[in-house]
Request: fold
Amino acid sequence: MKRRDEGGAAAVEMALVLPVLFLIVFGVIEFGFVFNRWITITHSARDGVRVLSLGETPADAELAAEAAAPDLASSVTCTASQPATDQVQMMCVTTYDFSLYVIDTPIELESTALMRKE
Reply:
């Protein structure tokens, strides 16, 4: 019995699987960028609330928090507050433009840090 050539079938299978594979690989990479930005925002909020807990003004603490994320430049906004008499809080917010072929949406990332006043 003569064996048939199946080279075309492999090309069709590759054409069907390759877009899904690219979507998964670049999705993982894009998720890494989002996670990195979230870690930066968390660090920024923690630095700002530490400055605020030491008795600095809210404006100085907000500037310190925003300066703690130099790779985000001016896309981070931090807000200081005092939820209780012995506590201070810093909330930092930024957006990430998530774009992955068919998905193109901004993602808002925020982090809040709370400390006791010293």
User: Anything to note?
Assistant: The chain has a mean pLDDT of 88. The beta strands are 77-84, 87-100, 103-116. Residues 7-53 form the longest helix (47 residues).
